[in-house]
Design goal:
Distance between the termini: 59 Å
Strand order of the largest sheet: 2-1-5-4-3
Structural class: alpha+beta
Radius of gyration: 24 Å
Largest sheet: 5 strands, antiparallel
Number of strands: 5
Mean pLDDT: 90
Number of helices: 10
CATH superfamily of the largest domain: Transcription factor LuxR-like, autoinducer-binding domain
CATH architecture of the largest domain: 2-Layer Sandwich
CATH topology of the largest domain: Beta-Lactamase
Low-confidence stretches: none
Order of helices and strands: HHEEHHEHEEHHHHH
CATH class of the largest domain: Alpha Beta
């Protein structure tokens, strides 16, 4: 088998890497990423099915109740069977697969030898019944000890060649730089708990305006603006105007 380190990538391969990175560049949370990456992979790489499993540890990925799948054939019907019968025997849960994924981030079923009987049955009876013959995975780091596993499947056992896998390895290195900094859950919208006038003041704070400037803009007294800012900080849990400004800006453009 060709060593991936010996494969020379072409301009089209780098464009595929950039295409996926562009699709994921603006995601901020793990749930956003999980939804985005599966669709991006089936659009950019020649595979029918892509999955994304997430867990607080490597082993817990396989029982992810919110795993996403794009391009699957009745996955919603198969999900309970997978979780109840096959999750602990997934081919990528084997020690050899884990070692390879943690070392190189990408592994193909063809790379794995001497599978345990239960994992061989998973390939034969679950993936085989599903018609999947090209079976590959990409391993990504998430914050803390959390991990994500992106699966790539196709009925054609030659769907992904050596250059595709080498491209995936490069993509995985760059994606992990993004995924390590994702937030575990969607951020709460600080403005949602504020009154309309408080939201106006908060947006102007995010614009960098002083209390005096906000007072002129909203036709208020400066003392009134100070009271608004104090109440906004208390309602949002922000420790300072600077934190409030950063939090508000993270949900969209400032008011100007």
């Amino acid at each position: 088998m060709t060593e991936l380190s010996d494969v020379s990538l072409r301009a089209t391969d780098y464009r595929r890497v950039f295409a996926v990175l562009d699709r994921c560049a603006d995601v901020r949370t793990v749930p956003e990423f999980r939804a985005r990456i599966a669709a991006a992979m089936t659009d950019v790489f020649p595979v029918q099915v892509a999955t994304c499993f997430v867990g607080d540890s490597y082993d817990s990925q396989f029982t992810d109740p919110d795993a996403t799948l794009v391009g699957g054939f009745g996955w919603d019907r198969k999900r309970p069977v997978y979780q109840e019968k096959w999750a602990r025997h997934d081919v990528f849960a084997t020690p050899e697969a884990r070692r390879r994924l943690e070392q190189t981030r990408v592994v193909s079923l063809d790379d794995l030898q001497d599978l345990p009987a239960e994992s061989a049955a998973y390939v034969r009876d679950y993936l085989g019944a599903w018609g999947m013959r090209s079976v590959n995975a990409m391993h990504l780091d998430l914050p803390g000890q959390a991990r994500a596993l992106v699966g790539l499947f196709d009925c054609d056992d030659n769907a992904l060649g050596a250059r595709d896998l080498a491209t995936l390895r490069l993509l995985a290195r760059h994606l992990s730089a993004l995924t390590r900094n994702l937030e575990a859950a969607p951020r709460r919208d600080l403005l949602a708990a504020l009154t309309e006038r408080q939201r106006d003041v908060a947006r102007l704070v995010a614009d960098g305006l002083s209390n005096a400037a906000i007072a002129r803009r909203l036709t208020l007294t400066e003392d009134t603006v100070k009271k608004y800012v104090s109440r906004i900080l208390a309602a949002t849990g922000c420790a300072s105007r600077t934190q409030l400004a950063l939090e508000v800006q993270s949900f969209g453009p400032p008011a100007t």
